[in-house]
Amino acid sequence: MDYNAQYWKSRSVRRNAENKELKKRIKELKASRESWKNKYKQKTEEALLYKTEINGIKKKIEKIL
Length: 65
Fold this sequence. Notes:
By secondary structure, the protein is mostly helical. The chain has one helix and no strands. The longest helix is centred in the middle third of the chain and has 62 residues, at about 5-65.
């Protein structure tokens, strides 16, 4: 093998390893973002339920008074 072929092969191997790591990182980031998004949606739904429940209780109290 001549030097030029060896040089480009080593660059290719290095680049492929780097791409593999980057793809792994992207996959981790996507999973993390989905997790945070699901947590946010769940909290907002809970807050909405509590808000409607509080409003119902307030109306019942007003009727009593």
